Every structure is written in structure tokens, then in C-alpha cells.
Model the fold of this input.
Amino acid sequence: SNTDIRALAVGDGYILAGSYGGGIFRTPTGAITSSVWTAQNTGLGSNLSCLGLVYDKNNVGTFYAVLSGAGIYKTTNAGNSWTAINTDILTSCIAIDSSSNLYIGTSNGKIYTSTNGGTSFTLSFTQGSGFPITCLAVDPNTAADVFAGTTGAGMYVSVNSGSTWTQRNSN
Done:
């Protein structure tokens, strides 16, 4: 087992836990108090350091995982097997909105979006100083509002699903 958990996602009756170095583990949500977790690493390759997980509530069994230095992976069977959907974008974080649009942050200050389940990604933001995008979040009540946290450049906000971004820092 691996106790260095970096990401969690819940959906379709499962909890998926992404560990750093040990891959992705799964347990049924009804077994929350159980210590039985099953590795779900088929198709992930040799880099098993998970940085992010999200569940796509609009597509049964669909989760996305970000692996350190290995790109973005997708499962459509709740983690039984994974497929690389993009290994060119070296991602650091991931978020998904209520319309299944994906937002991917990178360690070199870029944000990419996908409106087609990860088939393609479009660059939607480049943070001028190249500070890493460390976290992303989408407002569950207003899906067009997307937030990006950085190391060194504060927070950025998009109110139009990633089309434009504005820096928002506290004084």
C-alpha cells in the first residue's frame, strides 16, 4: 500500500485515491471504513505518481488522472484500465466543470482546456512569468467561473470557461 496520497475523486460508487509513486487505488464508497484498497494501474505505465484525479459526472465510469511527467490518462470503467489521452502536456493539476470541460494546469504556467473529453486540448492561458499552475477549481454553481492558483504569481480567475484570465490577489 502507499500512504502518500496526492489526489482523491469520488463517483459511480467508488473512491479513487492517487498516490505518489504507488499509482491509483480504489475502494467502493460503501466501504469507506474499510482498509481494503485495490490497485487500479492497468495502462498507466511505469510512472505511478498521481498528481490529480477528477470524476466526470456526465459519463458513467469516467475519471481522469494526471501523472507526474507522464501526462493525462482516462478511464471509462471506473479505473479497471487507463488510456493515455495526452502525454505531450506535462500537467501539474486538473479540474472538470459540470459540462465535462477539462482544465489542465502545467508546471510552466500554462492552462489548457478540452471540450471533447480529452481528445484535444487548446492553450487558454500563459502566465507571463512562467510560474507553475499548482491547483485549479471550478465553481459548482457557475461552471464558467474557473480559478487557478500558482506558485509565485497568486491566483487567476476566468469567468468565461477559460477564454480570458485575470489576476486576483489580495493586498
About this structure: The two ends are 43 Å apart (CA to CA). The chain has a mean pLDDT of 92. The first strand starts at residue 5 and ends at 11.
